[in-house]
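Action item from last week, closing it out:
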Amino acid sequence: MDTFLTAARELLAVPSTADRPEQLRRALELVVDFVGPGFAVRWFESSGVPSALVHHGPERRDFRVVLNAHLDVVPATPEQFRPRREGDRLYARGAQDMKITALAQALAFKETAATLPYPLALQLVADEEVGGRNGTRHQLEQGVTAGFVVIGEHSRLDIVADSKGLAHARLHATGRSGHGAYPWLGDNALLKLLRTIDRLTDRYPVPPEEAWRTTVNVARVETPNRAFNQIPDQAEAWLDIRFPTEDTDWAAADADRITAHLAAFCEPGVSVAVDHVDAPHHADHDRPEIAHLRAAAREQGYGGEFLYKHGAGDGRFYSARGIPAVAFGVGGHGQHGPDEYAKLSTVAPYHAALLSFLHRLP
């Protein structure tokens, strides 16, 4: 654990945010160096974002299992890049999400890749926090494939086989400007937009508590109008929509169908633009690999229960290609917050569960 924690502190001190490409590469290189010599390393780059694929033996792109880890983090204060330990907690940006798990995956890979009866890869990416398109998705587009994927997102040794899909859309309203004292002479674009949003949120209300259903977050509403006494003739809203596999209005839809679905809520003069759509992530709960992973977690005294994640992750890129992927990681709390930490007592059980899982597979 002392050697592991030394490497962890060095990795956590790297401010590997999207706006610092040199630090993204530094984080990747630290983990590759942690794995050590004797393995093949293939480097990728897309739109200036680096990623790596580490494996044993001759060059290949098809693997029985891929261990996937992202090393980018969301921005934080300088203090959060100075790791500190308090008892069982290791505090730092990226401790829970997900540099500690990444190192544990790298250690398990290092210890097993040369002796397993099947090809294993360690996939290291650096853009999950900003969409994953230049990391995991890019490697898939370059031909990397797998029979099963373990993504090291935090889960406290539970199994995430389901994550919601994501759509980002904009509503744009047009009207007619005029003097605010005579509203009947104009056509208020902002009111059209708000009535449209009301219809949409009536259909998809904010849940009073956690619920596995489609949600719509109104992320921004704006108008270029800058005068109290002027009727706005333009207005725009941003929508962040999350949806599970079970909601076929969204999960089975492409951008055109989602545009049409949203248009049904719109007032005349309000149009829809869908920026992008990512399908939900789902893996069959009855797959033998998942059964093996759950059994390995239970060997370590953890439940290996199924978790359902409302946020999108890189598993969706595998799921979209019919490749089963799950998230499975260490414990902790506070991701993206000022007091993010990893729970160190989960690291050794997680590492042991990974080893057991890898050795269980035929």
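Closing note: The chain has ten helices and 19 strands.
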